[in-house]
Write a structure and sequence with these properties.
Elements: E1 4-7, E2 10-13, E3 18-24, E4 33-39, E5 46-51, E6 58-60, E7 68-73, E8 78-83, E9 92-99, E10 108-111, E11 115-120
Parallel strand pairs: 2-11
Antiparallel strand pairs: 1-3, 3-8, 4-5, 4-9, 5-6, 7-8, 9-10, 9-11
């Protein structure tokens, strides 16, 4: 069983930055692909970015490409999401998940509790 804990959310102005962290409870975290998803109030869960195992192949949703960067530190069992040039449309609860390398949230086995990101205009 993998437990994930997100942190780093908060309130930021348009154009600001935040770095989200996703810490895992297992030392084998490096063997899982990890994705970030978000869900805004009243909307469906949306893929943001994911990173593979090993060499860490990354893939981003078009809406965040060029602004967000996903990375991982397997020695710390942690995955990060650096978010720059934030926009009000980025406001959502952000979740990290571990599982298969996929943009489909249903393929991920383990989820964190989420962290709120609010971008003010």
């Amino acid at each position: 069983q993998v437990q994930l804990v997100e942190s780093g959310g908060g309130l930021v102005q348009t154009g600001g930055s935040l770095r989200l962290s996703c810490a895992a409870s297992v030392r084998t975290f490096g063997s899982y692909a990890v994705g970030w998803f978000r869900q805004a109030s009243g909307k469906d869960r949306e893929f943001v970015a994911h990173i593979s195992t090993g060499s860490g192949i990354r893939y981003y949703a078009g809406s965040v490409k060029g602004r967000f960067t996903i990375s991982r530190d397997n020695a710390k069992n942690t995955v990060y999401l650096q978010m720059n040039s934030l926009k009000p449309d980025d406001t959502a609860v952000y979740y990290c998940a571990a599982g298969d390398y996929s943009t489909n949230w249903s393929t991920y086995d383990y989820w964190g509790q989420g962290t709120q990101v609010t971008v003010s205009s």
